[in-house]
Structure formats: C-alpha cells, structure tokens
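hey so i finally got around to running both of the ones u sent me last week. sorry it took forever, my laptop kept dying halfway thru and i had to restart like 3 times lol. anyway pasting them below in the order u listed, first the sequence line then the structure token line for each. didnt double check formatting much so if smth looks off just lmk and ill redo it

first one:
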Amino acid sequence: MAPAPGSHLARNSLRLRALEPLLWLGPALALILGVVIWPVVEMVRTSLMDISSTGVTRGFAGGANYAELFAEPDLPGVVLRTLVWVVGVVTATITVSLALAQLLNSRFPGRRMVRWALIVPWAASVLMTALTWRWMLNNFYGVVNRVLMDVGILDKPVNWLAHPAQAFAWMMAVAVFVSLPFTAFVILSGLATIPAEVYEAARLDGAGPTRTYRSVTLPLLRPSLLVAAIINVINVFNSFPVIWAMTRGGPGFATDTTTTYMYKLAFDNQAVGESAAMAVVNFALILLVVLVYLRVVRRREEIS
C-alpha cells in the first residue's frame, strides 16, 4: 500500500528518490574530487607556504613565493616561449591532422595498414620517441645529418640541439609528430559521422571539392575540431618528456617552457614554494588559453 500524499513516509520516499542519482554520480564525483579538485587545492595551498629545501613547512608565506617567481629574470622568456610552443604545435597538429584524416577517410589499397602505422607514434612511449629523435639529431652519429650530407644539403654535421632556435624548432616538430595520431583519429571519427547525402546534395548544387570542403566538411567537423584542439592545448602545455629528453630546457633556460621551468625550480633550485606558484600560474595560463579559444570559436559560430 502506497503512503498517503503529504505523509511523513511519502516525504521520505521523495527524498530517497531525489538521492538516487548520487548512487550513479557518486563514484564519478569522488574520482573528480580526488584526482582533480584536491590536487588543485593542494597546489594552491603549497604555493602560499614557506617550504624548506628538505620539504619542511615553515609556516604561511603569503604572496612571497609569487613575488620571488615574478622577480625571476628568465620568467618572461619562458612564458612567451610556452605560448609560442602551444600555438605553434597545436596549429601545426590540427592542420596536418586534417589532411591525414581526409586521406585516411578515402578508399585506397592498404588503407587499414596505413591507419595501423599511424597509431605507432601514439602507442609508443613519448619519452622513448623523444630520445630516439635526440639520437637521430646527434652531430656525430645521427641519421638526420648523414642523410642531409648524402643528398648534398649539408657540407658538415650540425649540432641541431646546441642552438636554442634550432633545438626549439626540432622539439616542436617532435611534439607535432607524437600528437598527430590522436588528433587525426578524432577528426577521422568526425568525418565518419558526416552523412554521404550531404555531399551528394552539395554536388547537385554544383559545389566543387574546395567549396564542399570549406562549406560542408569543416562546419560539420567543428565539434571534433573543438575536442581535438582543447585536448591538444592541455597536453602540449604540460608536455614534459619531449623537452626534457631532448634538451632539458637548455642551454640554460633557452628552451624551457613553464613545465620544465617548474621542475627546475623545485629540483635544481630547491624552491618548492616558488615551483608551486609556477604551477598555479601554469594552470591559470591553460585555463586562459582554453577560454579564449572557446570564445573565439563561439564568436565565429555566431557570425556564421
């Protein structure tokens, strides 16, 4: 027999029903709380503490860690280099992945093998990939110098990673290389969802390949491009193995980004609190870049 409406049992039953979604959302919320929220809170707390080189907390430091961080002479160059790193790598990755996804979406002999081969840089360890490229770029036994000398482009070996500009360009190329598989497959999945009838209608309207791609394919790929761009921004911003394995941010701080600079502050300078402040700044920069990107995408959608 059902409880009468308005009774104490009925009210309790309604409360229990209202709490039922927590049975399903609870594990996910607990995971987010433990893996995302708590580390961020702890990071901010650490950035406000006075911590010795041995890890002993000596009390509240207020904004002293941030003041020391912003007084670092290398910080402006590191931040600017990080922005160049993120914008350059993500832009190149998205551009090349669009072409790769379009190729892999077409039918040709051996397409399945090409798709499998594209997964290799993604499946392999990023650290091992970066180390392999470092060996390939070595000026004594690297295959890159050997090939360029054999074809007559170089007269003598070049120590590519000894010069900051060249090293940074090669690191960006390697970062694009390891980012391509994921991005290409995200875009490929978006291409697979576009109905063939849409292309048929475009052909009937007299649209050529270029106009069809610009007016049909790209607009329908916006959700996939948005996901790929945001995930790439976060991953590239926090990319540590490529830079550390190839140059360790050197010479000096000439090829550091905020991630490797943060590591050096903590382990080379023994400035744990300052490193935590750099982590907070890095986190804020990621949020800022993502929000700006979302704002630009939304404005373009409103205009179109």
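and the second one:
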Amino acid sequence: MTDRALSVVRSGALTTVQDLGRPGHAHLGVPRSGALDGPAAALANRLVGNRPEAAVLETTLNGCAVRPRSTVTVAVTGAPCHVSVDGRPAAWGAPVRVPAGALLTVGTAVSGLRSYVAVSGGITVEPVLGSRSTDLLSGLGPAPLTDGAVLPLGTPNSLHTHVDTAPQPAPPAELVLRVTPGPRDDWFTPEAVRAFTSRTFQVSSASNRIGLRTEGPALERRLKGELPSEGMVLGAVQVPPDGRPVVFLADHPTTGGYPVIGVVRQTDLPAAAQAVPGTPVRFIDVRRR
C-alpha cells in the first residue's frame, strides 16, 4: 500500500475532487465541470508547487478533515476558514507542512462558501475523459468524498515556486455579474428585460454546482410556448417557468429548453462560487458600459 495517499476522516457537507475540468465534450452531453472558483484552486496549487492541472479538493460550507500517510505540503484557499494540524492553528492561504499521520482540519467557512485544499503532488484518482473532476450532474469522475475514503497522491514537483502567501479576493458582499443579453431575450416582455438588468436579486439556498439560482422579481415571458432543446454554455442565464434567473455553473447541462435571457462573462463566475444564500445579485448589461 502506497504511503502517498490521504485518508478522509471527515468528508463534510460536500467535498469533491476538482481540476481544470473536461471542456470540449459538450457534443457528447458531458458538462465541463472543474473547480467553481478556478483562481482559488489555481492559487492553492501554486502555493504547494503543483502544476495548474493538478486535482484539488473543493469543500462546501463546513470543510473537511484528512490525514496524509506521508509528510505533505498543503494550502487552503477560497473561502476563509480556520485551518489546524492536530488541533494546532495553521495558516490559511499559505503553504503548511503536515507530517505523516497528522490530522489536517479545514473548518467551516467564515465567509464565502467553497474552500480549496491543494496537496503537494496533487490528488491522482483515475481520470475520466482527461479530467479527475467530480461531475454532480452526469456522475462522471470520483464520487463525492465519504468518511474513510482513501485518495492517492502524486509525486511532488521538484520545481517549487517558493510562494509564501498571496492576496485573494474577499467573498462578495454583492455579486455583480456582467451579462450580454440574448440570445432569447426577445422571449420576455420589455418590462422583464429592463427588470433583469435594473432590479436586485438574491442568491437562493437552492444553488449548487449546476447553477446559481436566484430569488427576486419574476421575469415575465412575452412568448408562452416552449423552445426545442438547444445548446447551453457556461454562464448562460436560463429562466425557468417561475421567472427566476438561473446562472449555469460548471456542472450545467449541455442542452436546455428554457429561454436564455443573457450570458454572464466567465471572468465573473468565480465570485458566484463564493456567494452565500441571501447575497444581493445584480446583472449589468455590458452593452451600456
């Protein structure tokens, strides 16, 4: 049995393995997946000397606890949280040495929603279609972590970047999403189109890796029929029959039949990964800027 592995002591509410995802397979009905907060995952890898494509752990809300079988370097980024090694406080957002057999605890998010745990060498579960990411929609990739699971680790990169710490954006107090209207904004009344980019919504507790759901004003349709299923892209803002916009995130379906009123810039989506329920959401029409 290899000593390059992590034993999962506490899996948390939802902890998954994520990397850069598996883009390019939408024609097969396979979502992109990958870390929702890509910059946070990339920073965690950089802090421990991993390559950008190395797989990390993405925790949700209440963290996780793992025990390495050999001495490793770890870094926790994303949502700020308390980090400890065998009960002793450790740094968040910086490289931390964890001895073999010690318990690394990633606590509940103090703000934000998702924390990222990189381990030197990366997590080397078996890739599927070129990615080690867990896809909650299709079921591809490793299952979400469970207590007692064992995750293999790769060999640490000998070319360490020697980064001690790095600034990170705070989770959003207000989520501002720049959006390009269309392609189906003509399915909505003029009043609904104006409300979409002038009213304030809130993040719904029903949000997940598939989509950020919102609460707030219902957007009324002008056309009452249904669309044939058509392709969906990352950041598409689909409006289901209840009229509340849904922003598609990494595990989104590749096709859908509800009209898309706009598409959010991908550079704005990492902040959506950290927006807790109740966070105000504003959609900004980029054509007016």
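quick thing i noticed on the 2nd:
The mean pLDDT is 95.
anyway thats it, ttyl
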